[in-house]
Design goal:
This protein has about 220 residues and is mainly alpha-helical. It has helices spanning about 10-20, 30-40, 45-55, 60-75, 85-100, 105-110, 120-130, 135-140, 150-160, 165-180, 185-195, 200-205; strands at about 180, 210.
Length: about 220
Amino acid sequence: MSRSDIWVDFGLTGLAKWLSVQSTGGLEPGDVVGEAIAWGEGAYASTLLSDAERLLESSLATEVVNVLWSAAVRRAYVEDDPWLDGRVWLRDIVGLVMERYEAAELSDLRSIAGPGAGPAMRDAVLAEIEIMAAPLAAATESDRYGAVRGVVPALRRVVMEVDPDLGFRLFLRALKAYGVPITESRYIRYHEIGEHLGYHELVVDDGSLWVLGEGESPPSSHEA
């Protein structure tokens, strides 16, 4: 199964969506990871392993990982009292994948990759983050239940230092989690980027994005 066949959000962003839904059937986070690993004949396991290992191998501080994960699941983040250690969580995810597969199978999983994201795609994703920087920062910093500061700078760092593909999916996840409105032109552009990155169209939007209707204005002076 290729990434374009995965009709749900995958990797860490897909996992975040599953964990952000209140009705997880009483499963513990580790059990949810197990369900994700088993999905799609290993296609999901491949993307989950890839995302987690990329972040673990990066130079991003644990605090930045915590900010990203908190925003992805819409859970408040307090710098001096974090509710999780992002790098420990990533190591747990990698460990759960490795427990399920033999060495040869893990090698096969790691060989499944997207089409690659060069400088042009990096710049394209950064441009979309910049367009939405003000409304996204306002939404994530002021949310009553899931206030998180520093989301936009953290997203920039993922795109620049880790992977534009993962950065784009984390960006989309934050927009969806916090209900940040976007215009039709942005919606079309996100699908164009998703197509270039080999996503199924439902990875970009499964109905979770808030797209402004004709004549409807965003709740800020910035284009959304």
